[in-house]
Amino acid sequence: MIAVLKPNAAPEKEAELRQYMQSLGLTVQDIAGESTHMLGMAGDTSHLTPDMFARFDIVDHIVKVRESYKLANRRFHPDNTVIRCGNHVIGDGSLAVIAGPCSVESEEQILSIARDVARSGATFLRGGAFKPRSSPYAFQGMGMDGLELLKIARSKTGLPIVTELMDNSHLDAFEKYVDVIQIGARNMQNFSLLREVGRLKKPILLKRGLANTIDELLMAAEYLMAGGSFDIALCERGIRTFETATRNTLDLSAVPVLKAKTHLPVVVDPSHGTGHWELVEPMALAATAAGADGLIIEVHNTPHLALCDGAQSITPEVFHTLMDKLRRVHEAVNR
Ligand code: PEP
Ligand code: MN
Q1: Is 240 in the pocket of ligand 1 (CB under 6 A)?
Q2: pLDDT tens, 67-108?
Q3: Is residue 68 included in any domain, yes or no?
Q4: Do 55 and 92 belong to one domain?
Q5: Which of 123, 39, 118, 61 lies closest to 86, judged by CA?
Q6: Which of 34, 190, 198, 325 could form a disulfide with 224 if both were Cys (CB 3.0 to 4.6 A apart)?
Q7: How many A from CA of 185 to the centre of ligand 1?
Q8: Is residue 184 lining ligand 1, measured as CB closer than 6 Å?
């Protein structure tokens, strides 16, 4: 629900109104429009009616927000959210590129790939230390040792690190060492994990679940935001369909749909979205043309030897050429 205020509402009257909203157990969000000032109410608004605000004469009218996500809703926050990690940004109109291996495998591997992708213009380094593998017998990641290696790679390249958190027991380590916490597709609706991560107030990359709708993705973001984290990038990484030619079906229409529904930046993962390295370039270019704020791309120096997702990993050389094409597409569509 949104209270649209009359022009020049007295500050003490506005404070009174805010207090009333908070007394109803709601979070109040300022929404500055071009000529109007509005107060957005997030929380359980199902029992509210416009006449509950009739006694506040500074309220011009009340707008019901139909969608269940409020803080993530563009109506609550018309301007785009911009996520900053030092000089590295997602959502400011530039194209953020998060690149690196599926998993951290060794110091030489992560340093070599990190240096290569940094040289080609990547803006963040990815690498899984804790891996959500479908088989319990598959490589599960290097765990804490992997986090240590990511820290070394960050110190050598200056690239902020993006890595997946799977378990509440690692929250402290991630809070201390990780720049952007990735919540993977399989955990998008792990609500207890979302609540805990939300409390950290750190940047988060939230991936769309394998079989989740766009609205469910936005509700997952709402969990994080209700906990106090506002720097959230949403990631389209392909969904399950009947198609078997690709690992998943990359839903590129999610980009413009999300951009209309939410102020949060949108990142596309053409690696997990397709499962085949040859398809990464065309889908990365298409995602850029569709208006994505960023890409997350798996890059491996020896894909045929990768411990995880080698078939969808591109080499540093292919990544280098791709970066050049991405720049040109980004410039063309944003001209
Ligand atoms: C990943 O990015 O390494 C990953 C496991 O992605 P997803 O959660 O999208 O499968
Ligand atoms: Mn992977």
Answers
A1: no
A2: 999 999 999 999 999 999 999 999 999 999 999 999 999 999
A3: no
A4: no
A5: 123
A6: 198
A7: 6
A8: yes
